[in-house]
Amino acid sequence: MDFVLLLVSLIEDMDKNGVDIALVQARAGYVSNDMVARAASHHPGCMIPLARVGHDQQSAGYLDDPAPVREAAPAEFERCLFTLGIVPAGDIEE
Known about the structure:
By secondary structure, this protein is mainly alpha-helical. It is 50% helix and 12% strand.
């Protein structure tokens, strides 16, 4: 599903279920931190974006050596906070 359809679907579901504010974060293989930031910028009053690190490793099938993902985490959190304007929240289990 493309980004615009995902966003429209989320907003429709929120409206249908009386949800005024949603926390949104990346989802492995589907939604990136950049997409989360873009979605929240289109709906600033109803979406709170959270940065996620580790979803790249998850979509790759959990690498045998997670060291590169751990080493890249601080830089990704910094990029999310200062470039994308979204708060780093770590990894939330699904």
